[in-house]
Every structure is written in structure tokens, then in C-alpha cells.
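Per-record layout

source: Amycolatopsis melonis
name: Lrp/AsnC family transcriptional regulator
length: 183
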Amino acid sequence: MYDQLDLALLRELQRNARQTNRELAKATHVVPSTSLQRVRALLDRGVVTGFHAAVDLRTIGRGVQALVFVKIRPPSRRVIDQFRAWIMELPEVLGVFVTSGDHDFVIHIAVGDTGDLYGFVLDHLTQRPEIADVYTSVVFEHARATVVEPAFGRGTENGKPRPAAPAGNGRARPGEPRWSSRL
């Protein structure tokens, strides 16, 4: 469960993780020892998983971003796990989503230009025997939320993730909508 101080600390850390503990304590209206103790608890509980530098991709020669949709065949756990491990090793890859629907993966990449994008698809992806289909969309703009608040309400119970419904019965819990896996 998160209290108001935890939420304030999370907001402040997401806004500026480089601030000192003293600055963080002042911004959240607590003494530094309390701030330090609470941040350590958030780290220990796995709520805060790290502190990262944001990089402007254009300044490092990766001004073109794309989403690459990949269908894998056969769609087995072993094949998906191996492909995910392989794709994450490529330097162009920013992130990988394992998805449901028409494609098994959505791969977020950043490259220098459209020629590099073309090379990524042809030289890396089409050479893999497990890839049945590739679809690419160029990203014109990428906006991200800089502060992510915990989700209270739908999908949670008392601030904690709601346990998954038992498989096989196809029924929603009383008072809850039935959700489609294809939105």
C-alpha cells in the first residue's frame, strides 16, 4: 500500500532523480532521514527499479524511430523466448513488447536514417527463420509521460494488483466488465 508520502516521493524522483536527498525531503515536506528511509523502502519493495538518464536520440545519431511488428512461427514459448533474447541484444532496439493479436512482438527501434531502418529489417529480421511476417511504421513523434502515478481502482484492490481471474470460466467478477484481449 502506498501512502501520500510514497506517492509524493515517487513523483519527485520521476521528475528529477538527480536531486539530493535533502532536496527531495524539502520538496516532500519531511526530514531527510524519513525521505532516505522511504526511498530505500521503495527500492527494496521493487517499486523503484533504477535511476536512468534520458538521452536525446537525435544528438547521438538516432533521429529515426520506428515500430516494427513481427509475427513468429511457430508461436511456442521456446521460440518467443529465444527471439526476445536475440532482439534485445541488437543496438538499434529501445524496447520490446510481447503482444497478442496479429503480431507477437512490437519492437521500438532508433536508427540514423531510413536506409538504416531498411537495413535493420532486411539484414536482421528477414534472415531469421522463425519470422513469418514483418510490418514497419515510422514514428513521427514520441511523447512520454514523465511521471507515472500508481493505478488505484480498475485492476487493483487496495492499491495492490488484483490477482488474475482463474482460467477457463470466462466470467467477469461481479460488477466488473468483461474485457476483450483485442482492443
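summary: Strands lie at 64-72, 93-98, 105-111, 131-139, 156-157, 160-161. The helical segments are 4-15, 21-28, 32-44, 77-88, 114-125.
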